[in-house]
Design brief:
The chain is of the alpha+beta class. It is 47% helix and 16% strand. It folds into two domains: 48 residues; 77 residues, no CATH class. It has four helices and three strands.
Length: 138
Amino acid sequence: MLLRSLFFPPGGCSLRFDVWRGILGLLVTLLLFAACSGSRKQEEAGSAAAPPPVPELSFFVLPDGQGYGYEITLGSRVFIHQEVVPALEGNRRFRTREEARLVGAAVLERVKNNLSPGLTREEVENLLRPDPSSVPPD
């Protein structure tokens, strides 16, 4: 009965009714605002707490019938598949597993350092040049 008399006074609309209706509207608005902003903070906290996992870079030397190649994978996806020596003219294959490993490791290092995976001709030639200490003396 008390609430009815506050919202629906017997003599019709009054100032008291308008004041209570305004207060009630303000409270509902504040409650809705508080509920919405609280859920947004929880979403932001949840997304910051668990960043997506970074796929791992892997490197493999691949033999084929005509020589060797290498493959760099990002997670389970192939990122680079290289069957020929990069930066050199023609389609020269890697002759040995070690050649493919040296060039592939250099490319992998560049990718890990957020650089372009491309090597220059000089870089490839330096990698493939035989080490003088490993050549047997005459």
